[in-house]
Design goal:
14 strands; 3-stranded antiparallel β-sheet; 12% strand
């Protein structure tokens, strides 16, 4: 019988140590197990980290090299860079089932028992020692590092209640209550936000990483633990909460730097995959491709904004939450108007502001501006950036010999006309409002190539927003939506809180 060829069902039929030996089982460390299974997947051209986008040529090869080298790993990067998800997915590289001594507290390997219980049981029953099977989904332990984590939590401590109940001396190994690390023997153990762990607690990990054993309360106890450690951390200068002590960093063999999506396309793929749209009528809400780009552009603008703390980073959760809010804005409007279908509007971006304000850490200047205004300005910058991908710059066209294509709509607003785009406006009224602006439809049909009929009004509104971002029009946030009017006339009726009249440099 060849142990390697047995199916999971056949493996779980093995109930004793004698049967296990007869099947040809041989002990294997978790690092060897990860390495062997990774080699098989690489040879078969299988994707180990399914659903992790943008790391194919950077982070994932580094992780695979670290696993092949049998290294403990520290994933270093800003928040929202899939560090924890990668760690959780490493369980897919474990064997589906491994044998354990039945009843052993630390899931001992039957051929290499660790605890006194397992050793005594094997000595007593020999080949009749009962065997259990441990699924890979259970071989993962995760601990968030917080300032209140103690050595006892991680390593263990003497349990006086156990000693009294079992009438044992404190010198007996059986009075020890093991912490998370020993209980993760033969498992993947993850510590998230390692710098938040107090320095004295980090020191307690030295011996485990270097020698693979633990010490508890002066016991002459050596437990050669078999653990794959994965740590996650933000860069040391992220905040002054703490840092990784140098000797511990030295003992973590591979430190792998993660990053944010390097393109809008990758960002869109992540957002589409992670957004929770379950139960929403997404088949009745049309989202133009440009809007998906705008959502990703907001995150890009936030990562480069002078008002946002770059050391903190801008999580990918920003775009995910923003996209969910965007769909919800259209869904709410659809229900209010009794419509069966609708299309996303640029004005719906006002509804994503709450998804932005909680996802960015502001520097002092940003706090002075206010989180809401910073979020509104980030949306404006994203519109400005994407506008020139579809329309010529209004600033350049002013001086062009071919004439200014925006002259008709701008002239209409210059005559004192205003246009309100309301959040709850029915689709029919929305289209009628935009069609009332002379020359606006011609701007879209002439300048944007192959505009689908259903997206025409969307691009007409986008043109107005772009003109406002290039200071050709005034855009004012109302309680119920947005209002566009002539830039110069708006200067005479400026009221407190008008964001549309900020200097361009402030945006």
């Amino acid at each position: 019988m060849d142990y390697q060829t047995l199916t999971p069902k056949e493996l779980t039929q093995i109930k004793t140590l004698g049967q296990l030996k007869a099947a040809g089982y041989q002990s294997k460390s978790i690092k060897e197990e990860l390495r062997d299974n990774l080699i098989l997947k690489i040879k078969r051209k299988e994707n180990v980290f399914e659903g992790i986008w943008g790391f194919e040529d950077t982070v994932i090869p580094d992780i695979e090299r670290a696993i092949l080298s049998r290294h403990n790993i520290n994933l270093l990067g800003l928040r929202g860079q899939a560090k924890t998800r990668i760690a959780r997915m490493m369980t897919q590289l474990l064997d589906e089932y491994i044998p354990v001594v039945f009843g052993a507290e630390l899931n001992d390997d039957p051929l290499q028992p660790l605890t006194t219980f397992a050793k005594d049981l094997i000595e007593e029953k020999g080949d009749n020692t009962p065997i259990g099977w441990w699924h890979r989904s259970d071989r993962y332990t995760e601990k968030l590092a917080t300032p209140d984590v103690s050595v006892a939590d991680l390593i263990g401590d003497v349990d006086p209640i156990k000693a009294a109940t079992m009438k044992l001396s404190y010198n007996d190994e059986r009075v020890i209550h093991y912490g998370l690390v020993p209980r993760s023997h033969r498992s993947i153990f993850v510590i998230n936000e390692l710098p938040d762990l107090q320095a004295r607690i980090q020191v307690a990990l030295f011996n485990i990483l270097q020698e693979g054993d633990i010490q508890i309360r002066g016991f002459k106890l050596r437990l050669p633990l078999d653990i794959q450690f994965v740590f996650t951390a933000n860069p040391e200068d992220y905040t002054n909460r703490g840092s990784i002590v140098t000797p511990l960093k030295d003992r973590i063999e591979s430190q792998i730097i993660t990053h944010y999506p390097k393109s809008i396309e990758i960002g869109r793929r992540i957002t589409a995959q992670e957004a929770n749209l379950k139960g929403k009528p997404v088949e009745n809400i049309f989202v133009p491709e440009l809007m998906k780009d705008l959502i990703e552009q907001i995150a890009i603008e936030a990562r480069g904004s002078e008002f946002v703390d770059e050391k903190s980073g801008v999580s990918a959760r920003l775009t995910i939450s923003a996209y969910e809010n965007l769909i919800s804005a259209a869904e709410r409007r659809m229900y209010m108007n009794g419509e069966s279908n609708t299309i996303i509007r640029i004005a719906d971006l006002i509804g994503v502001i709450p998804a932005i304000t909680g996802k960015v850490e502001l520097v002092y200047e940003g706090e002075q501006e206010g989180a809401g205004l910073v979020a509104y300005n980030l949306i404006g910058k994203a519109i400005r950036k994407q506008f020139v991908n579809y329309f010529p710059s209004p600033e350049q066209k002013k001086k062009s010999k071919d004439g200014n294509p925006y002259v008709l709509p701008l002239a209409w607003f210059g005559e004192g006309n205003e246009l309100d785009i309301l959040a709850s406006q029915a689709d029919k009224d929305y289209k009628t409002s935009l069609q009332s602006v002379p020359g606006l439809e011609e701007v879209v049909t002439q300048l944007v190539k192959e505009v689908p009929e259903k997206e025409k009004e969307f691009f007409m509104e986008f043109a107005l927003h772009g003109l406002a971002e290039f200071s050709q029009l005034s855009k004012k946030v109302l309680d119920t939506g947005l209002q566009f009017k002539d830039l110069f006339s708006s200067m005479f009726d400026m009221g407190p809180g008008d964001e549309d009249d900020l200097e361009e440099d402030d945006l």
